[in-house]
From TrEMBL:
Keywords: Allosteric enzyme, Carbohydrate metabolism, Glycosyltransferase, Pyridoxal phosphate, Transferase. It is an enzyme of class 2 (transferase). This is glycogen phosphorylase. The keyword Transferase applies. The modification N6-(pyridoxal phosphate)lysine is found at residue 608. The keyword Transferase applies. One of its GO terms (molecular function) is glycogen phosphorylase activity. Belongs to the glycogen phosphorylase family. GO terms for biological process: carbohydrate metabolic process. It comes from Carbonactinospora thermoautotrophica. Phosphorylase is an important allosteric enzyme in carbohydrate metabolism. Enzymes from different sources differ in their regulatory mechanisms and in their natural substrates. However, all known phosphorylases share catalytic and structural properties. Its cofactor is pyridoxal 5'-phosphate.
Length: 866
């Protein structure tokens, strides 16, 4: 019989063990090995059985054992130490506390958070990044509040059918049995928020709080009895259901999320956020809710928009147009119009924010990324290359500007060392390397002092541990696939602790090309079975449940790994999750990544590998394009520009085989007389040293704080001080400039000082005559833009210089002057342009307005200079 309800009866801890409760409920344990040891020592077997989950452990351990521990002086001493350590961690000053004028609080919205495997509220890199962001904020003392949804079914657990087809199982989570506390009003009733949906339905949600070190994470949950059955299911699954379902989730996340923040700050006295960071477009509706608040306080929509934009940061994560969240215009009409329309945020304004108003845009579509860009004064991609791709992709929103000037910057992702570095590696150099990684700052020369044999011993141990783990997991998988013990003797001989081990694990969207290595199966077979220099490969990854294409790729892979001749050298492990990643990545020698360039926005698993001294073999995409230096791993040559995808895959697969056969494997098996692969070890050391300081999430978060959060807070303050005087003034100014812009004209440009024989070191004097109509020189910036000229007369590598207004002619036109130093040889060209100018703009492209001279330009000497 199946139970129709389940409860969790929480244990009552004996008084001397009370501190265990707080240690279990604060997720700091998930990145503090000492706390994990303490929990493990309570009951090692149960700790295993509950999947290293402290809350479940405390629920499962017997009262007798607890009574025993309550009188165990050694245990009590360790408990006191851990509790004191946590207290110190939660209250002491950290990096952020030394910054002047930094934001009082920052809200961080994300549809998924990967904090630990026991809180399975993530599906892949986006969520893990969000988890690492919060943990690092905690470590650095950054006052972030996370906002997300609580999905009742965690991300699915994957298994395989006998035929290798992905099977999904959704574990039903019981929030009462998780490290979550329900936010309550002073009278003890659960705190709730309401969000209106289409057809006048009110969606109610309660608010759970996970405590991630110093950082609270609020998770909204629609599974409350007051909701209609249909509404209860809004937070059922991550990325499940149809498009309406997804829209409802995103409305709850964005609109409900802001409301939950308000409740949280009211109940706890936490300062209100000054900055709102939206991790990908899904949470973008948060801007609409903040506009509503300000309009209800007396601002116009446009004024409120300025105030909201100033304090909003938007991070885009996908370079694939198909990967962007888009809704039908009709859906938005149903959900934000009709009975659910609010006067302060009228439907037509909502529609305008998400409209694809650029060439090729679809008038029937509402685009969440486009809305994200319009609602945020500051936006970024997640690697240098992705920033570049994003500026090109969204260039249409800033017509008249070159892609390079599109106001989307980039901050390259990072990973949280304490979560992702194996304890063996943290222990290098007598723990000094671990301290370096965990503090993020210190002397990286330390890495050069770690002796070869110490590095190699750690790599050997990690590989041996992985081999054990793989055998156990493979055995369990085969049992699950219906094999009997008698058929599984061979599993004990799977993988060899001395063979070069390659890892490949990630989600299975097609651009990540799980099966690229299978392009030439015979060649792969030869690499695996090579007599002298064999390789072995461990593979894992989940396909989205609705993605049959991805499941076919998994099946193709599993069928290959099932073949009797190679199954001891290549395995597919089902159910990739954080716990597996934490074991798998450190245990391999090489981490392989072969996405279709440039579709991997950043990628973070390779960063985890680097921090563990694992060498990357990767296509030059995402972060690897930026930080591969020729010696810290290998680049798989990519066939960029080859149009036929099949041909391109063949070329890149061949390049991969060649690289492994001729370079990677020989390097690994090249041993000195003491059996050490000294050149390999040198690459490991170089990887740790060159990539260590860069790939840390502490570097990433400091970049966010200094480059985006703090400027955003300052803008927001400038906008909201004195009853939002700044926002009112900026909105009025923008309206005036937009209305008058059609009158702005560049009437004449001339230059002198070079003649036919321009030479380096000469200066070019420029004069321009500009009509500004109703505007004045204070409203604009008149610039010369100069640089090299390509064969189509386009300027490249441009620089800009503002010209000075020096007077007016009789017709009221303004005379502008300036000089440009010719400090580069080669073809040279320039143009002049007029841009709106206001101190509260974050970028000169912000309004999308620019006036250029008519073509051909008014250059008097005309010639490109040589
Ligand atoms: C790090 C991680 C990812 C992201 O890996 P990519 O290579 O960036 O796709 C996905 N899933 C899990 C479980 C991870 O630990």
């Amino acid at each position: 019989m199946r139970a129709i309800r389940r409860f969790t009866v929480r244990t009552v801890l004996p008084e001397p063990l009370k501190a265990l409760g707080e240690l279990a409920m604060n997720l700091r344990w998930s990145w503090e090995p000492e706390y994990q040891d303490l929990f493990a020592s309570i009951d090692p077997q149960t700790w295993q059985d509950v999947g290293h989950d402290p809350v479940r452990l405390l629920g499962a351990v017997s009262p007798e054992r607890l009574a025993e521990l309550a009188h165990d002086p050694g245990f009590l001493r360790r408990l006191r130490e851990a509790a004191a350590d946590l207290e110190e961690y939660l209250t002491g000053d950290r990096w952020y506390q030394s910054l002047p004028d930094a934001p009082r609080a920052i809200a961080y919205f994300s549809p998924e958070f990967g904090i630990t495997a026991v809180l399975p509220q993530y599906s892949g890199g986006l969520g893990i990044l969000a988890g690492d962001h919060l943990k690092t904020a905690s470590d650095l003392g950054v006052p972030i509040i996370g906002v997300g949804l609580l999905y009742h079914q965690g991300y699915f657990r994957q298994s395989l059918s006998r035929e290798g087809w992905q099977q999904e199982r959704y574990p039903v989570l019981d929030p009462h049995n998780m490290p979550l506390t329900l936010l309550r009003e002073p009278d003890g009733s659960p705190a709730t928020v309401r969000v209106g949906l289409s057809g006048g339905i009110d969606l109610l949600a309660r608010i759970w709080k996970a405590q991630v070190g110093r950082v609270p994470l609020l998770l909204l949950d629609s599974d409350v009895e007051e909701n209609e059955p249909y509404a209860r299911e809004v937070t059922d699954r991550l990325y499940g259901g149809n498009s309406d379902h997804r829209l409802e989730q995103e409305m709850l996340l964005g609109i409900g999320g802001v409301r939950a923040l308000r409740v949280y700050c009211r109940l706890t006295g936490h300062p209100e956020p000054e900055v709102y960071h939206t991790n990908e477009g899904h949470a973008g509706f948060l801007g609409l809710e903040r506009i509503r608040e300000l309009v209800d306080d007396g601002l116009t929509f446009e004024e409120a928009l300025e105030a909201v934009r100033a304090g909003t940061v938007f991070t885009t994560h996908t370079p694939v147009p198909a990967g962007i969240d888009r809704f039908g215009r009709d859906q938005i009409e149903r959900y934000f119009g009709g009975e659910n329309e609010v006067a302060s945020v009228p439907l037509h304004k909502v529609l305008e924010l998400g409209a694809e108003t650029y060439p090729g845009g679809d008038p029937n579509v509402f685009n969440m990324a486009v809305m994200g860009l319009r609602l945020a004064q500051r936006s970024n991609g997640v690697s240098t290359l992705h920033g570049h791709v994003s500026r090109e992709m969204f260039n249409g929103l800033w017509p008249g500007f070159d892609a390079a000037e599109v106001p989307i910057t980039s901050i390259t992702n990072g990973v949280h060392a304490s979560t992702w570095v194996d304890r063996e590696v943290l222990g290098l150099a007598g723990m000094r390397f671990g301290r370096l990684l965990r503090n993020g700052e210190g002397d990286w020369d330390l890495v050069d002092q770690i002796p070869d044999h110490e590095i190699w011993a750690v790599r050997q141990r990690l590989r041996a541990q992985l081999v054990e783990e793989v055998r156990q997991r493979l055995y369990a998988s085969w049992k699950q696939r219906g094999a009997s013990d008698a058929e599984l003797g061979w599993v004990d001989g799977v993988l060899d602790p001395d063979v070069l081990t390659i890892g490949f694990a990630r989600r299975v969207p097609s651009y990540k090309r799980l099966t690229l290595m299978l392009r030439d199966k015979d060649r792969l077979r030869r690499l695996l079975l090579d007599e002298e220099r064999p390789i072995q490969i461990v593979i894992a990854g989940k396909a989205h449940p609705a993605d049959d294409g991805g499941k076919r790729l998994i099946q193709e892979m599993v069928r290959f790994t099932d073949s009797e001749d190679v199954r001891h050298r290549i395995v597919f492990l089902p159910d990739y999750d954080m716990a597996m990643a934490q074991r798998l990545i450190p245990g391999v020698d090489v981490w392989l990544n072969n996405p279709l360039r440039p579709l991997e926005a950043c990628g973070t698993s390779g960063m985890k590998a680097a921090l563990n001294g694992v060498l990357n073999v990767s296509i030059l995409d995402g972060w690897w394009d930026e930080w591969f230096d020729g010696g810290n791993g290998w680049a798989i040559p990519s066939a960029d520009g080859v149009e036929d995808p099949d041909h391109r895959d063949n070329l890149e697969a061949t390049a991969l085989y060649d690289l492994i056969e001729h370079t990677v494997a020989p390097r690994f098996y090249d041993r000195n007389d003491r059996g050490l692969p000294v050149r390999w070890i040198e690459m490991v050391r170089h990887t740790l040293r060159s990539l260590g300081p860069k790939v840390l999430a502490s570097r990433m978060l400091k970049d966010y704080v200094t480059q985006l959060y703090t400027p955003a807070a300052w803008s927001a303050r400038a906008m909201t001080a004195d009853g939002c005087a700044g926002a009112r003034a900026l909105a009025a100014w923008k309206a005036r400039v937009r209305a008058a812009w059609h009158e702005v004209r560049i009437d004449h440009v001339e230059s002198s000082g070079t003649g036919e024989t321009a030479e380096i070191g000469h200066a070019l004097s420029l004069r321009a005559l500009v009509s500004l109509g109703q505007l004045s020189p204070d409203d604009v910036d008149v610039q010369v833009v100069y640089g090299h000229v390509d064969e189509h007369d386009n300027l490249t590598d441009t620089r800009t210089e503002s010209l000075k207004a020096v007077g007016q002619d009789d017709g009221g036109r303004y005379r502008y002057e300036g000089t440009v130093d010719l400090d580069r040889t080669g073809s040279f060209g320039y143009t002049v342009r007029v841009l709106p100018h206001h101190p509260l703009l974050a970028s000169q492209a912000e309004l999308g307005l620019v006036t250029l001279p008519p073509i051909p330009t008014g250059m008097t000497d005309g010639s490109a200079l040589r």
